[in-house]
């Protein structure tokens, strides 16, 4: 492409809310064969809601919710917001906490009124020495519905299975169809568990899923998806997406995301959803075709 055609292409993109931080990205996008997307906040709204809480024998619903919300009050994860909101809606008091600990990709723990409370993924419970096998059927059912199963442990006993659901953005199905029409494969990278990720992928017609990815594992996930030599675009928004945005052949940050993600990206999507990716790729194909 000539410098002029790239200027025209990037200018037209800007009008559509697609900012090319690097002109070369316009050409690189044309060669992309697979678009990998971070699930939370990009495919979904990033605002999950509490949908289920089933206490173990000897625990009460409100007791578990209040204790778990007390711990989550310190966390900034979207799951934490869902749990705290649910507790507030029930009029439960959020007690003060001590010794808060966040384990990225696993969960959070603290002491609340002298009780030890931990909440997080199955792998977190296993790390803490709890056997989640008793909730296996329930977890499979929740995951099959696209909900994220979580567990609460109180005073070293497994106290409940909890689920949150993050609604899919209204614009996502159409954007995925458009990417498929452009001949691209779509992959999902997520920290969420396999059953949940696969249910959401099935619902959306997503071609490949890399689930249970720890925050520092996204770069490895990109290497796996690119193993066959395909050029890959990665779309993400979070702080932990920055290395993956830099590693992809083209990194696209959603504009509503964090500064560090935006600085690591080649392209910034102002719209905050996947339609910006479709526009960027369609534009890149049109621009490069025009000057050939
Ligand atoms: P994602 O961005 O895909 O949600 P994360 O790495 O942020 O991935 O989280 C992965 C998993 O770790 C979550 O699905 C959840 O099971 C668990 N987790 C992380 N933070 C919390 C938290 N504050 N409360 C409960 N669970 C959490
Ligand atoms: Mg995240």
General description of the model:
- By secondary structure, this protein is α/β, with parallel strands linked by helices.
- It has 2 domains: 3-45 and 168-290, Rossmann fold (3-Layer(aba) Sandwich), CATH 3.40.50.1000; 49-165, Calcium-transporting ATPase, cytoplasmic domain N (3-Layer(aba) Sandwich), CATH 3.40.1110.
- It is built from 13 helices and 13 strands.
- The strands form 2 sheets. The protein has a 7-stranded mixed β-sheet with strand order 1-13-12-11-2-9-10, with helices on both faces. Strands 3-8-7-6-5-4 form a 6-stranded antiparallel β-sheet.
- The longest helix has 16 residues, at 275-290.
- The chain is elongated and about 70 Å long.
- It starts with a helix and ends with a helix.
- The mean pLDDT is 92.
- Residues 40, 191, 238 line the site of magnesium ion (MG).
- Belongs to the cation transport ATPase (P-type) (TC 3.A.3) family. Type IB subfamily.
């Amino acid at each position: 492409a000539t410098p002029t055609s790239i200027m025209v292409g990037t200018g037209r993109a800007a009008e559509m809310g697609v900012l090319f931080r690097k002109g070369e990205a316009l050409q690189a996008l044309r060669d992309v064969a697979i678009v990998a997307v971070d699930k939370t906040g990009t495919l979904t709204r990033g605002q999950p809601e509490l949908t289920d809480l089933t206490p173990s024998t000897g625990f009460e619903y409100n007791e578990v919710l209040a204790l778990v919300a007390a711990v989550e009050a310190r966390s900034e994860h979207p799951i934490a917001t869902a749990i705290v909101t649910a507790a507030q809606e029930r009029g439960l008091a959020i007690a003060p906490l001590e010794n808060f600990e966040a384990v990225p990709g696993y969960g959070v723990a603290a002491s609340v009124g002298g009780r030890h409370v931990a909440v997080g993924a199955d792998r977190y419970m296993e790390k803490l020495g709890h056997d989640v096998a008793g909730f296996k059927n329930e977890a499979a059912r929740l995951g099959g519905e696209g909900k994220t199963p979580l567990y609460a442990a109180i005073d070293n006993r497994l106290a409940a299975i909890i689920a949150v659901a993050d609604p899919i953005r209204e614009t996502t199905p159409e954007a995925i169809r458009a990417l498929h029409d452009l001949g691209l494969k779509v992959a999902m990278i997520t920290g969420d568990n396999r059953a949940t990720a696969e249910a959401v992928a099935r619902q959306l017609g997503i071609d490949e899923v890399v689930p249970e990815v720890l925050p520092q594992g996204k770069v490895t996930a990109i290497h796996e998806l690119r193993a066959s030599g395909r050029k890959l675009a990665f779309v993400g928004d979070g702080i932990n997406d920055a290395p993956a945005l830099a590693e992809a052949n083209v990194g696209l940050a959603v504009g509503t995301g964090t500064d560090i993600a935006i600085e690591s990206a080649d392209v910034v999507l102002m719209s905050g959803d996947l339609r910006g990716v479709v526009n960027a790729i369609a534009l890149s194909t049109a621009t490069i075709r025009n000057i050939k």
